[in-house]
Specification:
The protein has 366 residues and is an alpha/beta fold. The chain folds into three domains: 103 residues, no CATH class; 175 residues, Rossmann fold, CATH 3.40.50.450; 65 residues, Winged helix-like DNA-binding domain superfamily/Winged helix DNA-binding domain (Arc Repressor Mutant, subunit A), CATH 1.10.10.10. It has 17 helices and twelve strands. Strands 1-2-6-5-4-3-7-8-9 form a nine-stranded mixed sheet, sandwiched between helices. Strands 10-12-11 form a three-stranded antiparallel sheet. Helix 7 packs parallel to helix 8. The longest helix has 17 residues. The protein is elongated and about 85 Å long.
């Protein structure tokens, strides 16, 4: 642990000194924050705009002792404390005065990758929404972005799992202490993420998932994301708040359109209608807006799988790709195939992991 880390954490936890005022303090004292915790308060500190007498009267010795205890916990659990002068502090966060200037991080990747994609959405997604996440993640592989999300139920955890399955690094931003992963059932996924990604928390060890923590968590998700994608969201909720933060930060926001009349579609459709998000139907939409080129020149997994398909299977699969989801009767009519001939082809495609059957005799391409 860096020897100056306790001073940074003590300042970060100093009640009454938020990120904006904290930056003013940093500007006044440079990198040597230790002077703030000497016996006499230095004169420049008394002149920092926004620092009241009540704030100054806090016990600085106690603040530092608590910060040192937090740093000991961090060392015990092999957690890094990243602060504004740390060489690994994310430059994507550094430019915003209202974001935390110190946070805990446990992971295996650099927090300054070339490309990042934030994926968020409802905690109660539809089956189609979860399948879209899985399919979209596979299509993202050639671009090699880092996936950012919040480890919550629904779209968040689906994004983390799909990233891990596709070999993409993924980072979770927590609304609790780094030792208090919430929901607790997602701890195994968090442990896997540390091997190819990581977890971030701006909150002290022992902090529970308090409601007021999540808007602050959402700001970091927005800041770390070059592109923020909303996949299924109601008109109000955390995803819409995060999208608003991202727009305020001049990020590229995308939303997946949904069926009119469904509550899970209202938020995404509103973002698109109000020009707060780009419409996203495939990875091509993302690549076009972001001007991204594929990092991997190898053939995609899909193309490699075509080697194992016969002519009829390829025709059926391409038809499903075109329409995304179809009823078996409509698909048979389009391809002039009887139910008895089409059903075994669909079964083979499902066994090969290219499609999935849905209720109502419907099939969807993955």
């Amino acid at each position: 642990m860096n020897r100056v880390a306790p001073y940074w954490w003590a300042l970060a936890q100093w009640k009454g000194i938020g990120p904006k005022t904290g930056k003013k303090v940093m500007d006044a004292f440079g990198k040597d924050l230790s002077v703030l915790f000497e016996e006499e308060l230095p004169e420049p500190f008394l002149d920092v705009e926004g620092v009241s007498r009540t704030v100054l009267e806090q016990d600085r010795k106690e603040l530092l002792e608590k910060a040192e205890e937090q740093c000991r916990w961090a060392e015990k659990y092999k957690v890094d404390l990243l602060h504004r002068t740390h060489p690994e502090f994310p430059y994507r966060m550094e430019v915003y005065d209202h974001l935390p200037f110190a946070f805990f991080y446990k992971g295996s990747i650099d927090l300054n990758p070339p490309k990042t994609v934030g994926i968020i959405g409802t905690r109660s997604p539809s089956e189609e929404g979860k399948l879209f996440v899985e399919s979209f993640m596979k299509d993202l592989v050639p671009f090699q972005p880092v996936i950012i999300s919040g480890l919550a139920y629904g779209i968040d955890i689906s994004a983390h799992k799909a990233a891990l399955a596709s070999g993409l690094p993924t980072i979770a931003v927590l609304g609790s202490g780094i030792d208090q992963v919430y929901p607790s059932g997602h701890r195994p996924i968090a442990r896997k993420m540390i091997q190819n990604g990581g977890v971030i928390s701006q909150f002290p060890f022992g902090t529970g998932p308090d409601r007021e923590n999540f808007p602050m968590r959402n700001q970091i998700i927005a800041a770390l994301s070059d592109a923020l994608i909303v996949i299924e969201s109601k008109r109000e909720g955390g995803s819409m708040i995060t999208a608003e933060f991202a727009n305020q930060m001049n990020k590229d926001v995308f939303a997946v359109p949904g069926q009119p009349g469904r509550k899970e579609s209202e938020g995404c459709n509103l973002l698109i209608k109000s020009h707060q998000a780009n419409l996203l139907e495939s990875v091509d939409d993302l690549a076009y807006i972001m001007r991204w080129k594929k990092e991997d020149t190898k053939e995609s997994v899909q193309r490699q799988l075509f080697v194992d398909l016969n002519q009829k299977e390829e025709v059926v699969y391409r038809a499903l790709q075109k329409e995304r989801k179809q009823n078996i009767d409509a698909l048979g009519f389009e391809l002039s195939l009887s139910h008895s001939k089409l059903a075994p082809i669909l079964l083979q495609l499902e066994c090969k992991g290219l499609i999935k059957s849905l209720p109502g005799n419907q099939y969807i391409a993955l």
